[in-house]
Amino acid sequence: MTSDLRKRHLIMWIGIIAIIPALMVIAVINIPNYPKDNQLSKGLTVNGETVLKTVEAESLRLRLLELRSGTFLEVQVLQPLKSSSTAVYALNNDLSQGVFIGQIGSKGPYRFPAAGNLSGISVFDTIKEEEITKIQF
Amino acid sequence: MGLNYQTVLWNKHKKVYDKLIVAFMLIYIILFAGLTFAFNGETTIETLIIRAFGTLAVIMLHIILAIGPLSRLNTRFLPLLYNRRHLGVSMFLAAAVHGVFSIIQFHTLGNVNPIYSVFTSNLDYNSLANFPFQVLGFLALIILFFMAATSHDFWLKNLSPKTWKRLHMMVYLAYALIILHVFLGAFQQETSPFTIGFLSIGFVVIAVLHLAAGFKERRTDIAKAEKDEVNWLYVCTVDEIEENRAKIFTVGKERVAVFKYEGKLSAIHNVCKHQGGPLGEGKIVDGCITCPWHGYQYLPGNGQSPPPFTEKVATYELKLAADKIYLNPEAFPEGTEVQPVNC
Fold first, then answer.
1. Which stretches are transmembrane (chain A) (predicted)?
2. Residue B161, Cα to own-chain centre: how many angstroms?
3. A27 in B contact zone (CB under 8 Å)
4. CB B172 to CB A84 under 8 A?
């Protein structure tokens, strides 16, 4: 390589090192903090739980549960989802998308803290940025 | 080095390297699929392909980017540099599988052109958690496509080495786009610190290697030489150069390779006409200076490639005082015959 080319390589790498790590750190800091309870739960039956509402649609079974620690929405994914990144939002009374509840993925049950008056959910494809379905209790 | 263009320039060594590349890719994909089905059996085949080829391409890109600086820091890595082009094309193919399957999976079910959909389905450029990361990956794939498509010597010759090199230096931009594509995309749904840590460590390793190699070269470039009474530059003593090897010496902004062979000394410009390889890091094979990068050859006495090849580099005049080698900093025109100095 010529000295100009070597210099250009060095300058490019100094530029990359100056910019990219900062963006990497900002990206990691901004990773959404989903509720810790959105992990796959080990069992569906918990002593002392009361099922407030239940519905099954679009390969999803929803249960609104009253537990000692509060109200929880249980989403059981019955069939693998077609979307690779799927978020669950509360449904407002006018059926518009409400607050973010959590993220669901592979087949299985998920539990999220939820309001006792939850009327339904909006299932949202976060990559295509489009609603997959609405499910009402 | 070949007189006529061939679709793929294979030789015994390249065939071995290519088999290793194919074996590595196959083993990685099989392992990835096996582990995915073992720990996440509900994963669809499309998602598996997207993830397996995406991660494979990222790993291969890191290996490719490490080869250059490693070769600058230690000549034992030069054989990897010799075959880097095939590794680059293979990496593009892996990235292309990832890109094509992603576009099919996420953008072909709508009523708009899938490519248009990549750029318009998400316009949330103000959000980090929801940034349109697919656009970054798509742009990186376009750069990698042009690099793979022009990787053949036909394009190197017809675009000119300068333009070709500029185009291929865009791999650094592609790398930056890919890092951001992963951090703003897959990692926004990531809960494991290991995958984030793994890519972060990869970036640090590549960056440190490039900086180390860059500053090493910079020290050589700014080294000042001692002059004699007629302004010839002191290079080194004869004993400091191994037989059939060279001492690389900086003259102004250029580098010169002073070769010792068969009891003689000759000096030529250090930059190979093919891809700018460092001729002084090569050795004399069959009487010809042989570039360590791709095997281009030059005669030490006149800097010309042996017939029927036509490449030629500048030559320099040398003189000996006791066992000290001095070099005239004024270069002769490319291909000028210069009488070797006996030593």
1. 12-31
2. 14
3. yes
4. no
In the chain, the amino acid numbered B274 is H
Q: B235: distance to nearest CA of chain A, Å? A: 19
- B211–A10 CB contact, under 8 Å: yes
Mean pLDDT of chain A: 82
Q: Do residues A101 and A71 make contact, with C-beta atoms less than 8 angstroms apart?
A: no
CA distance A83 to A26: 26
Residue of A78, A72, A26, A81 lying closest to A51 (CA atoms): A72
Mean pLDDT by runs of 10 across the 343 residues of chain B is 60 85 97 90 86 96 95 84 88 97 85 86 81 94 95 81 86 96 84 85 96 88 80 91 90 89 93 86 90 87 89 93 91 92 88
Give the rounded distance of the alpha carbon of B255 from its chain centre.
20
- Phi then psi for B28, rounded to 5 degrees? -60, -50
Q: Half-sphere exposure (CA, 13 Å, Cβ side) for B105? A: 22
| CA gap B139, B291 in Å, rounded | 34
Looking up tokens 């001692």, which residue turns up? Answer: B226
Using an 8 Å Cβ cutoff, are A31 and B182 in contact? no
CA of B184 vs chain A CAs: smallest distance (Å): 6
State the DSSP H helix or E strand holding residue A91, giving kind and residue range, or none if neither.
Answer: strand A86-91
Q: ipTM higher than 0.85?
A: no
Identify the residue among A5, A8, A14, A16 best suited for mutation to test binding to B, counting B beta carbons within 10 A and taking the highest: A16
